[in-house]
Structures are given as C-alpha cells and as structure tokens.
Write a sequence for this structure.
C-alpha cells in the first residue's frame, strides 16, 4: 500500500513539475493540423522559402538575397521545389510548429536554470506556447527563420551559463547559427551576458569583457556582410525614422502585452467590439496579476536587465519595419518577465491560477480565430488563381497582371488584401504545379471611377506590343482575362 502511495505521489510530483510540457506536447499535433491548411499569401510568394527550381540556387540565393543572408531559407525553398504540390507549404508549416515546440522546451530549460519556481516556469512556458502574440509567426509559412533563430539563441544562453569552459566556443557559434536563420538572432551576442549578469551568473568585470566579445561577434558578422557579393537596394519600409520608432514601439507594447482578439478589434470588415471587449475583459485579470500587482519588482536588478534585453531583442524591428510576426523576437523575454513576477508572488497562487485559466480559454479562442482567418485569406488567393486559369483556358507562356489598387483593410498575415493573397498572379503558378505561366509581371493602377477602363486600355496596348500572351485584370477578388 505504501509503495502504491509513493508511486501516486511520484506521478503527482511529475505532473506538478512538467504540466506545461505535457500540455504543449499534446497540443502540438493539434496546432500542426490547424495550420496545415494555411496557404501562401503576400511575401510567401516572393521569399526564398518558396519552391526554387534553379540549378544555380546556391550561387544566386545561398550567400545573399535581397536584404538578407538567410541560407537556411534557401535550402527550404530548394527542398520544396523537388515536389511543390506535396511539400509547399506543408513542409514549412511542419518546420515552424516543430521549431516553436523546441523553442518552448528550450525556454523551460532556461527558466529551470535561472531557478524559477515550478509554478512560475510552467505558467511562463505555457504562456509562451499559446499566446496570440506568437500566432503571426506560428501561422506564417516563411517564419521558420524566426523560431529557429530564437531557439538557437536560447540554447546559446544555456551554454553561456552552464558550460563556462567552452562558452567562448559554443556561444559565438550558436549566435552565428541563429543569425544565419534571421538577422535579429545576432542580438543575443549582447543579451546573453546582460541576462546572465541579471541572474548573478557573472560579475561586473566579466560583464564588461563579454559585452566586448558580443560587439566583436556583431562586428564579425557585419564584416562578412560587407565582404559577401551582393546587390542591395534598401526598401523605403526599412529606412529608420523617429516617428517610425514611436509607432512601432506602441504596436509592440500593444501586441505583446495586451491579449485581445486583434481581428475583432482592428480589422474593419471583421470588427466586433463586443467580442473584442469580452476577450480583453477575460484576459485583463492575468495581466494585472502578473504585470501590475507586483510592480515593485521592476526596480530589481533582475527585471531591469531582462527589460534591457527585451529592448535589445526587438530593437532591430522597432527602428525598421514592425508587424505582428516580429513580436516573436521579444516573447521569450516577456515570458521571463512573467516568470519573475510570479516568482515574486507569495504562496497564495489561487487568484493567479484562476486568472491564468481564464487567460488560457481566451487565448485559445483568439488563436482559433486567427488561424481560421489565415486559412480564409489563403483560400481567397487560391480561388482567384483558379478563376484566372479557368478563364485563360489554355497554357500561356507569359502574363501581364494589372491590379486596380485595393483599399481593402488588412491585418498582418491573418487578413490579407486579395491581390496579395493572389500573389500578384504568382498563385496561378502553384495551381498549375509551376507548369505555366513561366513569366508573370504586374503593375498597379490607382483606383478611380474609370480605373477598369484604363486597365482594359493598358491591357490591349500591352497585347498589341506582343510583349505578353495574356492580360489579367485584378479588381479586388474578381479576375478578368484579355487574350490575343
């Protein structure tokens, strides 16, 4: 009988210590099944994770592409190109969801090493896994670079604090690996020593030395970028500016700390302020319990260092371009802040538990809504591609796509403008398994009362010049075809 009680107590202790991991592992296949139907939209049609058929892909894309040096994206595109209909975007979704799982497990390990209470690290880890702030990344097709960059960065921190003998080998290597996934991975060259200092793993002298080492790591990457052959034109969206920093900071604080149904609140065609308000009311108690009730902790060295690390993590996005996908770069720090606050709480965890259960219910419903909207956005692009192919009738080599400017509101990758879901015509290639059209060029004309007539005139002029075999006119979700 005593052996039975001991066995039961052992299982209870296991559940108490690892309940977040158990639930995350159980939810992962459900999450994967939910996101698999999401189809490419917007940047997915133009990035390097799309199917790549070039035999010279290493020469063209591996070392540098556009603004980025992301070789792993190129490999994913090459793999997807072996069988696009089977692998794209399913292969991408699998990588993203598994990456998010690995990142959550790495975060749990980090919280264990910095000696958070069991309740604190479990709540913070589960928060990280299901927070709607992460959904723009988890539901995206080209975001495996973000999740694996953060995963490598967290592992770099684990090596930094636990393997002092080898940290100057594995820390830079893992930071560089993270950076080859995505550039913001480089920020942990500074975050690792600052965060370690906050948790008293290193002293002032080591902090100064390792910040210098971090700067050297950043400089080495910058030198590599300068040396690599490249042809870069900086897009206006990436140009820094003071007003841009202010706007992006507000967006970041809102999307990272406030849990609300963003679609019901921000997307005008879907707006439902009642449901948005309900989602906010349900999640506010947890926000209060974690971020407001224990406000004194913000003056502690540990929290100050964590907040500094949060600013460093999201800094590259705040100064250039920020969307909900970029929130992911800072969620690990927010999870650490959450754990620190809970760690500061006395032993009366009942109010916190109740507020967190309410937050979980709201978060899961919001997640489901965000995923459903992403699926519907992708289906719009698929429908438009099928319509264009059907109306074209037979394969053509080249198409000129004339898009009438669409003022339809968008929200991140969840609710996309139809012509962006259509990929400005590129979705048609996917529907034909990249058999045709071989060439697609697009232009956008201003929306006006006679915009459609102007589009027809431009289309006929283009056909008469015999530059393209076919014209597609895109007016919101509607496609018209002009052929020779």
């Amino acid at each position: 009988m005593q052996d039975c009680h001991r066995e039961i107590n052992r299982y209870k202790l296991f559940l108490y210590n690892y309940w977040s991991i158990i639930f995350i592992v159980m939810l992962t296949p459900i999450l994967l099944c939910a996101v698999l139907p999401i189809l490419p939209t917007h940047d997915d049609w133009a990035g390097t994770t799309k199917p790549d058929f070039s035999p010279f892909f290493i020469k063209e894309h591996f070392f540098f592409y556009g603004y980025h040096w992301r070789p792993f994206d190129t490999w994913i595109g090459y793999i997807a190109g072996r069988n696009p209909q089977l692998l794209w975007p399913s292969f991408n979704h699998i990588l993203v969801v598994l990456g998010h799982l690995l990142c959550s497990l790495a975060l749990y390990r980090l919280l264990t090493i910095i000696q958070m209470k069991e309740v604190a690290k479990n709540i913070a880890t589960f928060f990280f896994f299901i927070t709607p702030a992460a959904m723009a990344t988890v539901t995206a097709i080209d975001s495996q670079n973000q999740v694996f960059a953060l995963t490598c960065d967290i592992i770099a921190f684990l090596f930094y604090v636990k393997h002092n003998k080898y940290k100057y080998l594995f820390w830079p290597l893992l930071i560089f690996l993270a950076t080859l996934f995505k550039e913001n991975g480089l920020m942990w060259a500074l975050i690792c020593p600052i965060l370690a200092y906050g948790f008293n793993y290193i002293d002032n002298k080591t902090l100064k030395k390792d910040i210098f080492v971090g700067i050297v790591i950043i400089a080495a990457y910058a030198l590599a970028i300068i040396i690599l052959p490249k042809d870069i034109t900086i897009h206006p969206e990436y140009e820094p500016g003071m007003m841009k920093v202010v706007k992006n900071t507000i967006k970041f604080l809102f999307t990272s700390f406030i849990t609300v149904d963003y679609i019901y609140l921000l997307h005008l065609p879907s707006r439902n302020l009642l449901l948005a308000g309900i989602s906010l009311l349900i999640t506010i108690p947890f926000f209060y319990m974690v971020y407001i009730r224990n406000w004194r902790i913000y003056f502690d060295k540990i929290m100050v260092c964590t907040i500094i690390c949060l600013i460093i993590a999201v800094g590259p996005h705040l100064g250039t371009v920020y969307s909900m996908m970029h929130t992911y770069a800072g969620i690990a720090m927010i999870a650490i802040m959450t754990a620190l606050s809970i760690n500061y709480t006395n032993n009366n965890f009942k109010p916190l538990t109740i507020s967190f259960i309410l937050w979980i219910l709201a978060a899961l419903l919001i997640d489901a809504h965000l995923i459903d909207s992403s699926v519907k956005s992708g289906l719009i692009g698929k429908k438009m591609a099928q319509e264009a192919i059907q109306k074209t009738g037979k394969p053509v080599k080249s198409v000129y796509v004339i898009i009438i400017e669409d003022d339809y509101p968008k929200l991140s990758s969840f609710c996309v403008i139809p012509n962006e879901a259509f990929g400005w015509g590129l979705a048609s290639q996917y529907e034909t398994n990249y058999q045709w059209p071989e060439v697609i060029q697009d232009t956008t004309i201003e929306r006006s009362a006679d915009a459609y007539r102007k589009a027809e005139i431009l289309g006929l002029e283009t056909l008469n010049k015999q530059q393209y075999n076919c014209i597609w006119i895109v007016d919101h979700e509607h496609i018209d075809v002009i052929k020779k």
Notes: Residues 418 and 483 are 23 Å apart (CA to CA).
